[in-house]
Amino acid sequence: MKFLFDVFPVILFFVTFKWGESHPQAAQSYTAEYLSSFISGGISSAEIAPILLATAVTLAASIIQITSLLIRRKKIDAMLWISFIIIMVFGGATIYFHSETFIKWKPTVLYWCYAGAFFLAQFIFKKNLIQTAMGSQITLPDIIWSRLSLAWIAFFVTMGLVNLFVAFQFSTSVWANFKLISMIAIMPAFIIVQSLFLSKYIEETE
């Protein structure tokens, strides 16, 4: 359920963009009706309308997501706050400047912020974020905690680079597909591989 909650805005972005891509005139109409006040110049082309509409839906979903946690007085992870701030900034810029460049950069900036957080925590503040999150559940040698942190840093840096490659070497439609796949397939696959790596150490501890 937490996974579905976290990827909810991404799924909405994908569904809205694909609908807008199939119905560009309708997407432009909705954009003109609901987003013209937020767009520089007040108008957008039918070509850019699907990405603007998808971005607006994602912004709304992210606000609802954070608001629901605040109302229920649930703890909001630092990573979720970072994601929220970045989508607000880059999503807002996408709509205002009616340019898909900003929203295409958003995943890369987010990935690299995550990588930077892990790097600073481990090498500057001498604190392992993976161990902080999972240390109460499993016991691992320090070297393994360090390798896990380095693996996540490498993963986030790589994903950021791959996102840029797909975003600017392929169509927006292909990039939207990749954006969804990265959240519901690539990242879970990386976590599964990590779990398999950890299994032998968990068994030894037990």
TrEMBL record:
Q: Look up and give the membrane topology term.
A: Multi-pass membrane protein
* Pfam families the record matches: IspA
Query: Where's it found, cell-wise?
Result: Cell inner membrane
Entry's transmembrane regions = 48-71, 78-97, 109-125, 145-168, 180-198
InterPro entries noted in UniProt: YciB (IPR006008)
Q: Which UniProt key words apply to this protein?
A: Cell inner membrane, Cell membrane, Membrane, Transmembrane, Transmembrane helix
Major localization listed first in the record, in broad terms: membrane
- The keyword NAD appears for this protein: no
- Record-stated family: Belongs to the YciB family.
Task: Give the protein's function.
Answer: Plays a role in cell envelope biogenesis, maintenance of cell envelope integrity and membrane homeostasis.
User: Could you tell me which HAMAP family the record lists for this protein?
Assistant: YciB
**Know the name of this protein?**
Inner membrane-spanning protein YciB
Source organism of this protein record = Undibacterium griseum
- What gene, per UniProt, encodes this protein? yciB
